[in-house]
Amino acid sequence: MREVEFEEDNSIVSTKTYEKNPEKYKGLIRCFECKKKSWFRKSFLAGATETIACFAAHHEEGCERATSIIETDDQEEEKNDTDKDVLSNDIVIDLDKTKHGSIEKSLPADKHEGEDHTWDPSPKSKVKNFDSSGYPNNRSLKQILRYLIRNPDYGLSKSFQIVANSGRPILSGLIGENLIHIPNVPDDKLQKLQLIWGEINNYTENDDGSVWLNYGSRKEPSLLLDNSLKQGVMNAYSLESLERFQGSRFLVVGRAAKSPKGKIIVRSHMPKYMVFVNNKEQ
Ligand SMILES: [Zn+2]
Question: Which CATH superfamily groups domain 71-103+111-280?
Answer without folding.
Answer: Nucleic acid-binding proteins (2.40.50.140)
